[in-house]
């Protein structure tokens, strides 16, 4: 493991890079949450990573609990994945023609997630959900889509709408640039509220193409579906001829070998029609997918009329990384992820409890998050009622001690199978000292 140097004296190289970056990149970053907007301070520019550890431009090392926001389930530069990527790259970077690696990756996904009969590879989770929605609209001939407040499905116009409460809030765009017409086709409902879903379908059932939901939400912190919620969504959508799209971009191949579906099982009322995947299945490279029932997927070009395409879709290097990652995700890997999650959640419970820091941990498989509030979190309103200022102080207390948490209190703490006992112990000690500091 790297020499571990906690630092009190700032991050000069990162600050210099941020100044340069801001002159040529909006906000200096290529994805907003990287800017440390909600916690303040200077985002660290990274130079290299191995296993559970990151190293930044100032030469400081950190135990990584961001994991590239999900993909790095095996830790960084895993030898098997590195070898697969190197071999694939040596054979050609991109052909724009079909390759066996795409078939292998698709077969692996279909083998693991039983209701998925056909799968189309794309390059990001956003593309996966965008294409799944288009396909659902094409298949049903309807336009409206139901999503849940607090669920993130990428920056698709129709899915950025998220605010709203009450029966069936007709979404207003959250972002300038999203036309009101796009948001008007989006019905935003509170999560875990089947009554709200029933009422929305009673009102507009014949217009609704699909309900899209995070299989187990991780983007408002971890908020598991209440018992019967997924089952209810399947029942209601089936009654009204709408599709159910289960977004497993985050949970896929992480919550279990078969994602959230592997933990919860196929609901008694039936499996979702479509699934979206990303993150782990790309092994840190741009690969994602959507798939589902053969009958629905047959609507997709070139078999059917719903258009969807991509210059780099199924890229051979990304497919090699994804395949090697999935193949290396053995039962031992999932067992280790659980052990690491057990150790870290126990440390939070213990240290926060002893120092009187109000908190709530929620978890699905090894995916967990820490809310800076007490009491069960069932939806986005609950999730937002937390002490974000105190989280910001905790984040920086941890960062100073060489632990890089996600810079937002609405994110999962992403563990990897490379988090060995030394990495875990570093985090556990940092949690204890940081809890004392913010108490
Ligand atoms: N869906 C879910 C559940 C996600 O967590 C994310 C990303 O965080 C996305 C979709 C979008 O994926 P991407 O960032 O690869 O576009």
UniProtKB/TrEMBL annotation:
InterPro entries listed in its UniProt record: 4pyrrol_synth_GluAld_NH2Trfase (IPR004639), Aminotrans_3 (IPR005814), Aminotrans_3_PPA_site (IPR049704), PyrdxlP-dep_Trfase (IPR015424), PyrdxlP-dep_Trfase_major (IPR015421), PyrdxlP-dep_Trfase_small (IPR015422)
Keywords: Cytoplasm, Isomerase, Porphyrin biosynthesis, Pyridoxal phosphate
PROSITE patterns: AA_TRANSFER_CLASS_3
Compartments, record wording: Cytoplasm
In-chain residues carrying the UniProt-annotated modification N6-(pyridoxal phosphate)lysine: 279
EC number: 5.4.3.8
Top-rank EC class of the record's enzyme: isomerase
Pathway(s) per entry: Porphyrin-containing compound metabolism; protoporphyrin-IX biosynthesis; 5-aminolevulinate from L-glutamyl-tRNA(Glu): step 2/2
Catalytic activity, as annotated: (S)-4-amino-5-oxopentanoate = 5-aminolevulinate
Cofactor: pyridoxal 5'-phosphate
Mitochondrion recorded as keyword: no
Family: Belongs to the class-III pyridoxal-phosphate-dependent aminotransferase family. HemL subfamily.
SUBUNIT field: Homodimer.
PANTHER family attached to this UniProt entry: GLUTAMATE-1-SEMIALDEHYDE 2,1-AMINOMUTASE (PTHR43713), GLUTAMATE-1-SEMIALDEHYDE 2,1-AMINOMUTASE 1, CHLOROPLASTIC-RELATED (PTHR43713:SF3)
Protein name: Glutamate-1-semialdehyde 2,1-aminomutase
């Amino acid at each position: 493991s790297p020499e571990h140097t906690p630092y009190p004296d700032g991050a000069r190289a990162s600050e210099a890079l941020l100044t340069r970056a801001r002159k040529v990149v909006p906000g200096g970053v290529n994805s907003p949450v990287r800017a440390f907007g909600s916690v303040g301070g200077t985002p660290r520019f990274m130079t290299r990573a191995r296993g559970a550890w990151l190293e930044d431009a100032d030469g400081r090392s950190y135990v990584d609990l961001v994991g590239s926001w999900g993909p790095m389930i095996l830790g960084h530069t895993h030898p098997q994945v590195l070898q697969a990527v190197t071999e694939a790259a040596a054979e050609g970077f991109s052909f724009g023609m079909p390759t066996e690696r795409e078939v292998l990756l698709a077969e692996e996904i279909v083998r693991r997630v039983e209701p998925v009969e056909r799968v189309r590879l794309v390059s990001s989770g956003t593309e996966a959900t965008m294409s799944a929605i288009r396909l659902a609209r094409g298949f049903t001939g309807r336009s409206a889509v139901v999503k849940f407040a607090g669920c993130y499905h990428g920056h698709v116009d129709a899915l950025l709408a998220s605010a709203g409460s009450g029966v069936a809030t007709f979404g207003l765009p959250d972002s300038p640039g999203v036309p009101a017409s796009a948001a008007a086709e989006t019905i935003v409902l509170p999560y875990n509220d089947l009554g709200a879903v029933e009422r929305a379908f009673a009102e507009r059932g014949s217009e609704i193409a699909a309900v899209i939901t995070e299989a187990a939400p991780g983007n408002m912190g971890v908020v598991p579906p209440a018992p019967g919620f997924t089952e209810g969504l399947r029942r209601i959508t089936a009654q009204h001829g709408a599709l159910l799209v289960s977004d497993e971009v985050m949970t896929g191949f992480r919550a279990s070998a078969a994602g959230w579906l592997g933990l919860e099982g196929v609901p008694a009322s039936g499996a979702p029609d479509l699934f979206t995947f990303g993150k782990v299945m790309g092994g840190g490279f741009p690969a994602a997918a959507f798939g589902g029932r053969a009958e629905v997927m047959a609507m997709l070009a070139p078999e059917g009329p719903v258009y969807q395409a991509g210059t780099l879709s199924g890229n051979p290097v990304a497919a090699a990384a994804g395949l090697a990652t999935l193949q290396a995700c053995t039962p031992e890997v999932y067992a280790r992820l659980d052990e690491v999650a057990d150790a870290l959640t126990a440390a939070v419970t213990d240290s926060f409890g002893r120092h009187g820091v109000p908190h709530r941990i929620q978890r699905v498989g090894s995916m967990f998050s820490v809310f800076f509030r007490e009491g069960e979190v069932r939806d986005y309103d609950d999730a937002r009622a937390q002490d974000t200022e105190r989280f910001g102080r905790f984040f920086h207390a941890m960062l100073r001690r060489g632990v890089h948490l996600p810079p937002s209190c609405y994110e999962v703490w992403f563990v990897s199978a490379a988090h060995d006992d030394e990495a875990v112990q570093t985090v556990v000690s940092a949690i204890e000292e940081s809890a004392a500091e913010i108490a």
